[in-house]
Amino acid sequence: MRVRRLSVLLASSSSREGRLLLRISSYQLRALALAGVCVLSGLLVTSCIPNPFNQSPEPKISILAGSPHGPAPLDLTFDISASNDPDGEIVSFTFDFADGTPPVSGNDLSQPLPHIYTEPGQFFASLMVEDDDGKLAMVMFVITIDEPAE
User: Fold this and answer.
1) In this structure, are 26 and 83 located in the same domain?
2) What are the DSSP calls for 45-107, one per residue?
3) Range of the domain at 19
4) pLDDT digit of tens for each residue in the chain (150 aa)?
């Protein structure tokens, strides 16, 4: 048996699944990669890897208003809108102010995140983002709060 042509096409989609299309001569076999398992013409194949070329998202934190260093209480507004995913989109984020207040989670990166630091100390605010292929990335930002000015 001679195979004349073999081509593989991996198409990325906006969901967590990747579609794999194999063309062997004039026959087509379709496989759906979902959560690390391939279903190929009704057969279960466990050695399928979904989107091995997925790039990590790139979380970014900047300050829109205020300064990351100053006396308590320190009023800051964080900007995370420059965060991106080179080969897809960011579907969720969690921002932790690192001062004991609850983290903020969501999916709208364009909204500014205002926060007031009331206690002196050094805080490592963090931003964790997840892309549409389930890959996570995190960045930290140092905030230094001095004793209140008298």
Assistant:
1) no
2) ES---S-TTPPPPB---EEEES-SEEESSEEEEEE-TT-B-TTS-EEEEEEE-SSSSPPEEES
3) 6-45
4) 443 333 333 333 333 444 444 333 333 444 444 444 444 444 444 444 556 678 999 999 999 999 999 999 999 999 999 999 999 999 999 999 999 999 999 999 999 999 999 999 999 999 999 999 999 999 999 999 999 977
Cβ(92)–Cβ(84) below 8 Å: no
CATH code where residue 105 lies: 2.60.40.10
Q: Is residue 20 a part of any domain in this protein?
A: yes
**Residues 69 and 39 reside in one and the same domain:** no
Query: Does residue 56 lie in a domain region?
Result: no
Q: How far apart are CA 58 and CA 136, in angstroms?
A: 9
Residue 42 DSSP class: T
CA 114 centroid distance within chain:
21
Place of tokens 């205020």: 66
What is the reported pTM? Answer: 0.66
Number of structural domains in the chain: 2
From residue 33, alpha-carbon distances to 15, 36, 40, 76, 129 in Å are 11, 6, 9, 44, 23
